[in-house]
């Protein structure tokens, strides 16, 4: 896509977003919610409370639900996704561990350091 086409497309998107924003600003429900939020924040400040305190006060079961999820054995953090690309063949391997069959064969053939240099990116 040419730079001019991209500019025109972004300009149209911006115009559409501005129209949506103006429509929302005129919506009475939004005004009501913003007023509620402002009053709630002022009240929390007045009494020195945080959002978590208010949630615990209004929904005591929410704290128990959050404790259950971490205590159920899912406390281990998920490994990061590593994406390798072989510069010679263009083949891509995505893995969360070092025991991937294809990655292992690359490391046996080319060496650990060479294959680690093929790391394209890491994602959570």
TrEMBL record:
Annotated source species: Vreelandella neptunia
Chain segments annotated as coiled-coil in the UniProt record: 4-34
Pfam families the UniProt entry points to: MvaT_DBD
Protein's UniProt name: DNA binding protein
Entries under InterPro entries matching the protein: MvaT_DBD
Chain ranges of the MvaT DNA-binding domain: 82-118
Keywords on record: Coiled coil
Location of region: Disordered: 89-108
Domain of life, per lineage: Bacteria
């Amino acid at each position: 896509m040419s730079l001019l086409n991209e500019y025109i497309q972004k300009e149209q998107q911006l115009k559409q977003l501005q129209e949506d924003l103006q429509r929302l600003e005129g919506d009475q429900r939004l005004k009501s919610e913003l007023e509620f939020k402002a009053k709630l924040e002022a009240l929390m400040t007045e009494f020195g409370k945080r959002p978590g305190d208010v949630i615990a006060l209004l929904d005591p079961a929410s704290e128990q639900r959050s404790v259950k999820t971490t205590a159920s054995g899912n406390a281990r953090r998920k490994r990061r996704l590593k994406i390798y690309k072989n510069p010679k063949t263009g083949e891509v391997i995505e893995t969360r561990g070092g025991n991937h069959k294809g990655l292992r064969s690359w490391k046996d053939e080319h060496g650990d350091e060479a294959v680690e240099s093929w790391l394209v990116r890491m994602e959570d």
